[in-house]
Each structure stands twice: as structure tokens, then as C-alpha cells.
Amino acid sequence: MHELGIVFHMIRTVEGVATDRDIARVSAVTLELGEVSGIIPSYLESCWRWACDRSELMRGADLVVEEVPAITYCEDCERTYPTVEHGRTCPYCGSGRTVLAQGDETIIKEIAVPDERPGGLAGSSEVADSDSAIRV
Ligand SMILES: [Zn+2]
């Protein structure tokens, strides 16, 4: 039940933001989900429905999943490659000294409020960091 834990964590986070900003209803939450996060989006969605029905704040809120492709960085040749295709071994130089640059994240990117423009979160800066990391 990993997905349910994620959903509870997300809802707690959203509830915290809602309390800080005096938000009474949430219409949608956008989640950046890494390709190798190990989370199954369809399962996450059904956990989301179930949990949101139990919360006044979250009732009827949509879950928007933006999948982040997994990219691995090679420390030896300083190139990046798709993680799912090649795993931990660099396809360019055969090195095993590789690190996942992005793709295991579960970051709340945006919380949408009815009749208001979506507000960004602190998590957005983390998103910007990983974006710049893949341009190396
Ligand atoms: Zn390499």
C-alpha cells in the first residue's frame, strides 16, 4: 500500500498549505511523478479518490500526474542517458559510476483552487533544479 501512504502524505501537505493560505476548497493537485518512483499512477488515482472523499477540503479534487522521465548521469564521461533503457551501466563508456539525475521524485507541483489561478509551491524550486541538472 505504498501509493496510499503517498496519497496521505500529499493530502497532509495540501491541508497544511490550505491552512496557511486560508483555502477552503481544492479543485486539483498536480503531482510530478518520476518514472522510476515505483508508484503506479492508476493505483495512485484510486487511492486518491478514496482518500479525498473523506476530506472536506479535498472532496472532488482532481489528481493530475505529470510523469518525469528517468535520466541517469555518468560521472566518468559526464553524459546522461535514459535510466529505464540502460539501468546503472553507462551505454557510452560502460562505467558503473552513475547516479540517477531525475526520475524518482514525487513532488507536488501545483495546487488548484476553484475560481482562482493555480498557486505554485515551494516544491517548484526543486523542479527547476532537476530541470537544469539534465542540461549538463
Ligand atoms: Zn559514461
Automatic annotation (TrEMBL):
Binding site for Ni(2+): 2
Disordered: annotated segments: 115-136
Alphabetical list of Pfam families matching this protein: HypA
Superkingdom of source: Bacteria
Any one biological process term the GO annotation gives: protein maturation
Keywords, alphabetical: Metal-binding, Nickel, Zinc
Sequence positions that bind Zn(2+): 74, 77, 90, 93
GO molecular function annotations of the record: nickel cation binding; zinc ion binding
Family statement: Belongs to the HypA/HybF family.
General function of this protein: Involved in the maturation of [NiFe] hydrogenases. Required for nickel insertion into the metal center of the hydrogenase.
Name under which the protein is recorded: Hydrogenase maturation factor HypA
Species assigned in the record: Coriobacterium glomerans (strain ATCC 49209 / DSM 20642 / JCM 10262 / PW2)
Gene: hypA
